[in-house]
Amino acid sequence: MKSIVSIKWLKENLEHPNLVVLYSNLGDKITPTQYIPKSKLFDIKKVFSNTSSTFPNTFPAPDDFQKKCSAIGINKDSIIVVYDSRNTFSSPRVWWMFKTMGHKNITVLDGGLTNWITNDFSTQTNLTTSFEQGNFESDCNEDGIKLFEFIQQNIQTQTALVIDARSNDRFTGITPETRVGLRSGHIPNAINIPYTTVLDNGKFKSTTALQEIFKNIPTQKKLVFSCGSGVTACVVLLAAQQVLKNEMAIYDGSWTEWATLSNL
Hints:
Shape: globular
Mean pLDDT: 97
Order of helices and strands: EHEEHEHEHEHEHEEEHEHEH
Strand order of the largest sheet: 1-5-4-2-3
CATH class of the largest domain: Alpha Beta
Number of helices: 9
Number of domains: 2
CATH superfamily of the largest domain: Rhodanese-like domain
Structural class: alpha/beta
Strand content: 15-25%
């Protein structure tokens, strides 16, 4: 299944019996008044993360992810389309979580809810809250998640290239971090590709444009994507997968963890 689909594709496949539509929420301050039909809530921050972790949005345990996916009616054979209300922001994080958990039929809706509503496609005023128990199974690919120790060692070994998806001002330390007390800067040897550069009005740029953005990336290098807390890093990873064949992973703790634990 393609990792990004159009609103036209979703409209044409809304009645597929295996289709699951997920609305990705990252503690958004503004709640939408309209949703795509059949939408279920996928609450990253409160439900689908390790809430006991010191750091935000930490990847959940596979058995916990499996249990909570099944609880909202997701099955092994579900075809999942995920979107968010901020064009393209947190939905790639959900896509990456499912891919890392071994589920192949997961895709991001290009342009999200804004694109759907702008084109006057039908909506519903509430999320779907009644579910039959699903049979989802997790099969976690641990290589898709990089931890602090790997990033620390990589500064010396440089076996992987770290790509930071934060704004250039945050990357260079010109702008203070949004989290109070968190120091500014970036991981040594990391490069900066802000997640906004791979998007155009909330939709992913063309293959040609993405090839230009990633043209200087070494083709054989492992790529590890980072940001503030592991969310927008997934936007850049998803874009990179459209044009690169490198092995890719997410540094789950991202800058929040690195700036807290490291002296570098």
